């Protein structure tokens, strides 16, 4: 059953679980369920299933549906479930239907596959997706889907497009988008999310333009650190924020930048390090180097130790 008030429910730390695979490379729904269950019990405000961190690109429609349904069952209505949707308009609509049938509360609409479209084409794509589903839609800005303020104003006029997740990182553009929507659509409750990889690193900057919601990849393998950071950022405890930035998040981003695809594969390695075997990433991604996994383990220990330092 979809939620008519998804926008009001997205208030807190957003959990993007990895998708678990077994030794044979097939879907491991038991491990995925355990991962989702642990994340919700730790305090996640929402579950974004089968999105970027969840290797949406590597899943068949059948696997996607099974994962979304499992996430819906494990959350049992305690928090909303938002599912990924992508590729071209026809396939995006197919994934939307699957997500809706599985009981998801909303969609994270990822960039179209392969092509670089103009603003009118992007507007047509996301409008068609939103109009073709009963679910609320969050549009993901990144890569080949970067919007002008005018396009976001137009998207925000579609009733079930409820927000914009920014993975592009242009704060000047984001401020102009926020200002344009506020000016042109006064009273519109339109959400903005910091969707950059390791979003905590830019949390202070996004907070400065009024964007407090963000996706936390760290939450997938260390909810303790992610929740401590989120709480400190929300209450304006910049001393704690900076301690975690300097001692954990900046070194983590430095490590993440050592390999292509590490925004996903390193997160999955972190989940395994914390005791849950969620398997390896699927091609075309590769596993992180053993030395980098070792460094990640040391970083996690350092981050946990920082939680006790005041």
TrEMBL record:
A Pfam family assignment: DHDPS
Known pathway: Carbohydrate acid metabolism; D-glucarate degradation; 2,5-dioxopentanoate from D-glucarate: step 2/2
Record-linked InterPro entries: Aldolase_TIM, DapA-like, Dehydro-deoxyglucarate_dehyd
UniProt enzyme class: lyase
Substrates-to-products reaction catalysed: 5-dehydro-4-deoxy-D-glucarate + H(+) = 2,5-dioxopentanoate + CO2 + H2O
Keyword list, A-Z: Lyase
EC numbers: 4.2.1.41
Tagged with keyword Lyase: yes
Keyword Ubl conjugation in annotation: no
Family the UniProt entry places it in: Belongs to the DapA family.
Name of the protein this chain belongs to: Probable 5-dehydro-4-deoxyglucarate dehydratase
Organism this protein belongs to: Actinacidiphila acidipaludis
């Amino acid at each position: 059953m979809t939620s008519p008030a998804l926008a009001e429910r997205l208030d807190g730390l957003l959990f993007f679980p990895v998708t678990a695979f077994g030794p044979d490379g097939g879907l491991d729904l038991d491990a995925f369920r355990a991962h989702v269950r642990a994340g919700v019990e730790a305090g996640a405000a929402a579950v974004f299933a089968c999105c970027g961190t969840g290797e949406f690109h590597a899943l068949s429609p059948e696997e996607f549906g099974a994962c979304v349904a499992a996430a819906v069952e494990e959350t049992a209505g305690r928090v909303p479930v938002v599912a990924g949707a992508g590729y071209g308009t026809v396939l995006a609509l197919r994934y939307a239907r699957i997500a809706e049938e599985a009981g998801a509360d909303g969609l994270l609409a990822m960039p179209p596959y392969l092509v670089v479209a103009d603003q009118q084409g992007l507007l047509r794509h996301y409008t068609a997706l939103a109009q073709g589903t009963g679910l609320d839609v969050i549009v993901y800005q990144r890569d080949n889907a970067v919007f002008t303020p005018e396009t976001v104003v137009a998207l925000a006029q579609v009733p079930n497009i409820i927000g914009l997740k920014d993975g592009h990182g242009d704060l000047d553009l984001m401020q102009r988008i926020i200002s344009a929507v506020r000016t042109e659509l006064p009273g519109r409750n339109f959400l903005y999310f910091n969707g950059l990889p390791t979003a905590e690193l830019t949390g202070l900057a996004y907070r400065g333009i009024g964007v407090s919601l963000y996706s936390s990849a760290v939450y997938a393998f260390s909810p303790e650190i992610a929740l401590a950071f989120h709480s400190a950022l929300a209450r304006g405890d910049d001393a704690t924020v900076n301690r975690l930035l300097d001692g954990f998040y900046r070194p983590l981003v430095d490590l993440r930048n050592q390999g292509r695809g590490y925004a996903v594969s390193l997160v999955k390695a972190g989940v395994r390090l914390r005791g849950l075997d969620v398997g390896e990433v699927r091609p075309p991604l590769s596993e992180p180097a053993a030395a980098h996994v070792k460094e990640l383990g040391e970083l996690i220990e350092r981050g946990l130790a920082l939680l006790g330092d005041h």
